[in-house]
Amino acid sequence: MKLHKYTVNLSASTGKKRTSRSAKTSHTPVRFFKGAENNITLSIADDKNKDISMSSYDILGTLIDPSSTVIFSKACKAVSEDFTKYEFSLQADKLLGVEAGFYKLSFSYADDINQLPLYVDNALNNTVSVEVVKDNYTWFEESTVIESFNVIDNVNDISETPSYKGDQHYEDTNGLHTFAFYATGFTGKVWAYGTLDADPNDDAHWFPLKLDTIEDYNTMTNKTGIEPFNVTCNLAFIKFKVDTDSGTIDKILYRR
In terms of domains, do 176 and 109 share one? Predict the structure, then answer.
């Protein structure tokens, strides 16, 4: 994984962030396995994508849940003599108390005064999506990739996915549903709906799953990347709705 130590200029008139970096945003979540040792090798570069030594700084990795609560932070270890490469390593017992699902991982560096962010793309995002998997065997479980959207309101550009089987159809007792929206320049709202009805037709009782601390839906503004969610409930079927102002939701990754 490549991280960037940017020198960022803020325009006093527009407040826009500017950088000469033109890297692509990553759309691939990192997978951590519970009960196993997990390692990520980090390369540190400047705003021109040239390796930069971080010998004067301490590098810190922080795991954050979807509500922006810090779960833990851990120091990264330098693995190159020029201090341009580091390793973020988690021992086998580090994730035992963490529920399976989607999280965010951020990296920062500390000088004598401040803790400053390291960025993962040219949009100055400083988090990557992480999926904590319950065990090594889950690697072989296929997630449902949802790329089919049915337009239900042409005027307001609102789309809905077909329905997909929930945990009631499987030998699954924990009721954990994890899903992630893959966005490109997306501004708008997203919903998730569940039902207990065995036949999810138009008359089925669909109820919203809470995706925000206040609202049932989640609002994104010019989002490029992955927006993950973890919801615990017992469902027969699940579906998703997207209200688009601009940009696109390219796909949804769902795992029950």
Answer: no
Q: What is the DSSP string of 178-217?
A: EEEEEEEEEEEEEEEEEE--SS-STTS--EEPP-SSSSSS
Report d(CA 202, CA 224) in Å as an integer.
Answer: 32
105: domain range?
Answer: 2-137
> Are 95 and 126 found together in one domain?
yes
Residue 70 pairs in a beta bridge with 64
User: Hey, what are 186's tokens?
Assistant: 């997306």
Model pLDDT for residues 100-143, shown as the tens digit of each residue: 888 999 999 987 778 889 888 777 778 888 888 876 544 445 67
Among 95, 47, 73, 102, smallest CA distance to 218 is for: 102
**How confident is residue 192, by pLDDT bands cut at 50, 70 and 90?**
very high
Q: What is the pTM of this model?
A: 0.59
Q: How many CB atoms lie within 10 A of CB 12?
A: 6
